[in-house]
């Protein structure tokens, strides 16, 4: 994908990436908000946008994508 894509991993903003990684680590919206000094509403908004860009509907799917992406990156793919 190129940077202008509206969907997929590369479409995620830096703030969305921060939130999705913390969700994949098991963080709740409230805990993530406290850690990043954001409101829970802002965390929820980042998460909704990430779900749309990744075409997913659950935190479980999100965690699978993060783990797959990180595994591929670790392998140099």
Question: Which characteristics define this entry?
Answer:
77 residues; mainly alpha; Arc Repressor Mutant, subunit A; 4 helices; 0% strand
N→C terminal distance: 14 Å
Q: What is the radius of gyration?
A: 12 Å
Number of helices: 4
Weakly predicted, low-confidence segments: none
Helical amount: 55-70%
| Annotation, overall tally of beta strands | 0
Give me the CATH fold name.
Answer: Arc Repressor Mutant, subunit A
CATH architecture: Orthogonal Bundle
The average pLDDT score comes to: 91
Number of domains: 1
The biggest sheet, with number of strands, parallel, antiparallel or mixed sense and barrel status, is: none
Structural class label: mainly alpha
Q: SSE order in H/E notation? A: HHHH
- CATH superfamily grouping: Winged helix-like DNA-binding domain superfamily/Winged helix DNA-binding domain
Strand content: under 5%
- Give the class-level CATH name: Mainly Alpha
- Give the overall shape: globular
Write a brief caption for the model.
The chain has 77 residues and is mostly helical. Helices cover 65% and strands 0% of the residues. The model has no long low-confidence stretch (mean pLDDT 91).
């Amino acid at each position: 994908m190129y940077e202008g894509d509206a969907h997929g991993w590369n479409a995620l903003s830096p703030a969305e990436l921060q939130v999705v990684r913390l969700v994949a680590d098991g963080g709740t919206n409230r805990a993530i908000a406290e850690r990043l000094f954001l409101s829970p509403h802002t965390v929820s908004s980042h998460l909704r946008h990430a779900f749309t860009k990744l075409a997913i509907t659950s935190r479980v799917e999100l965690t699978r994508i993060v783990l797959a992406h990180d595994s591929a990156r670790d392998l140099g793919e």
